[in-house]
Specification:
mainly alpha; 2 strands; two-stranded antiparallel sheet; 10 helices
Amino acid sequence: MASREKKSPLTNLIAGGSAGFMEALICHPLDTIKVRMQLAKNVPRNAAGGNLTFLGVGMRIVQKESPMALYKGLGAVTAGIVPKMAIRFTTFQFYKDLMVDKDGTPWKLNNLWAGLLAGVTEAVLVVTPMDVVKIRLQAQRHSMADPLDIPKYRNAAHCAYTVVREEGFGALYRGVGLTSLRQASNQAANFPTYHFLKGYLQRVQDLKELPGYQSASIGLISGAMGPLVNNPIDIVKTRIQKTPNPEGLSGWARFKDVNGQILKNEGWKAFYKGVTPRVLRVAPGQAVTFAVYERVSSWLDSNSDTFKLTAAAK
């Protein structure tokens, strides 16, 4: 079989890291709004007693805590985004390359299984501790415009240090099972949808590379798939990661307790709190991620001789 070119891990690191940084910078305010809506025990209401939309929740945060409050937890995200995206794209390709027959024929549904495994890998190595720190920071309701309003967690590094000191290192991995399930289902929907649409558009237009707006458009569609399916997982995960585990309560017992409390006090609809801002956070995020990733990786590939980034695979 003829040799083919594949992206090296360094290409995935640079392209994925660039994509992740841009995604976080552009979309983080929506993530903060999503977390506040998910943590609310009651539906947020305006002065007239009506339900607040995600835009209304965002406006309330800005009014009470300053516009910069929408970027609470950004440090934790940006610190983890480069390894997260590097792991996502590198392990996706790694698992996909393993899923071939002896003659090199890809397995059926290889994009789905490779995406699922890549999601679990990134959840265990990066996403879970990053989420714990991010959620603790986002849950703090202090004004960033008032220097005298000092929160418990000052920044991402201080939050991680405080959590480990007060609750032990294992606290950074609270909710790892649910995080793995969420990331696995996200990427199992994300990658197959993206690659199916990408392949289709390349065939009908007879193009080797899609224009940036098309990569962004199909990234938007693929990114919406996961949140629509797994929002209940994200709700329970967020509640578990917000606070320390009660003394002597196992992870499974905590999971059942949180589920029971939500159903008892808030009803089943609470499992879909924040689904709108989550879709509006994740879908544009994937649009940015894939558009930037494709652009940067294409540029790196075109300069592979200069940067020694291309690896030949048989």
